Prior knowledge:
Blueprint: H1 6-21, H2 39-64, H3 72-80, H4 82-99, E1 102-103, E2 107-108, H5 132-150, H6 160-183, H7 188-192, H8 200-218, H9 235-254, H10 262-288, H11 295-309, H12 318-341, H13 350-368, H14 380-410, H15 417-422, H16 424-429
Antiparallel strand pairs: 1-2
Helix pairs in contact: 2-3, 2-5, 2-9, 4-5, 4-6, 5-6, 5-8, 6-8, 6-14, 8-13, 8-14, 9-10, 9-11, 10-11, 10-12, 11-12, 11-13, 12-13, 13-14
Amino acid sequence: MKNKYLFPFILMGAISLLGVFYNPASTVNPDTGLPELSGSDIAWMLTASGLVLLMTPGLAFFYGGMVSKKNIISTMLQSFIAMGVITVLWVVIGFSLAFGDSIGGFIGNPTTFFMFHNVIDGRWPLAPTIPLLLFALFQLKFAIITPALITGSFAERVRFSAYLLFICLWSIFIYSPLAHWTWHPEGFLFKLGVLDFAGGTVVHMSAGVAALAGAMFLGPRTSYGDSKHSEPANIPFVIIGTGLLWFGWFGFNAGSAVGANSTAVLAFGTTVVASAAAMMTWIFFDAVRGKKVSAIGACVGAVVGLVAVTPAAGFITVPQALFVGFISSIVSNLAVRARIKSNLDDTLDVFPCHGIGGISGMILTGFFAKDVGLFYGPTTTFLYHLLAIAIVVTFTFVGSYLLYKVTEMIVPFRVSREDEKDGLDYTQHGETYKLKKPVLEPAA
């Protein structure tokens, strides 16, 4: 066993033992003033939770197919491992920081749900027809995929041990506060009236901005700009990953209605329509600019549409979702082109797609949100959305950059030039990915 993994191994053992012996009595009465649990809501939210969890393996395929062959396994594992790391962290303290008793509207009390204390028998006030445990597990899936999204920006050049430390720090100090601000009834953005149905700020903007900070902090890959080394290793992986993401996103958005109801149906409809519109817009926009229609373009466009509609999914109409997909696709496409012309090595364009896509979605939510959006007359919601974007971008960028520095002080974040040249699959994990060439039969 390598020394650098001895401490986390011991820590994992200590947490496991704590789980055995820490079992305080519940102090929550789940029946006081709350409606009865709904079997249909529970069934749908169990399904939605499974769908959202599927998105992380889908992201692994999506990212893994776009990197070089020598980095497929490492890139996919960076997504996949988040399901283990963040789940443990969420049970111990993450859920409490995000949804515990509010401390000034900025963070949850770490003792409220420590080690899921009070979670088993509790209820969440904004989801009273399902057990609190189910709500906590549903929110866990969001906490898992968000740091996994960041990995696309620094793919092919980071040390695995440093990455593990970073996502722990980032989840505690960036993700949990953002979730509290936006989704807790006492969160200050929530009380301002900021509308984020399923994670435009909490998930996509935060991941995209953290990705931008990471790309700037780490600098470009040694092979950056070499077209031979930037060819995607497995485009079918990208298509499979997009399909899994799109499928799982129905749980992501429709599940955020926290019940089997008409809002869930609306979110389901706006999700599929926005993604379809964005996918078609992306490939046609490429075509009118002289590029060939590509599979990767179609996949990236679909994901951008899913990103942009996420904050708006339950607040807009299905026809408006067409416009959301159309506009966000063009904006992110132009952002990708601008990034390519710059010196910024955001390996898989996380900031142009998730960061800019999330910002576009929040602006359009403030514009189209039923009854309160700028399209319907009032200005308050739209202006508060602009304020929220400024706050979230500043907090996430500065906080993430500092966490990169802190991580670097403990574990060198970037691998050596030699390890990067040899590929992270072998140098970090001792594994390789090889595709056998098909045997062609001679023509008759």
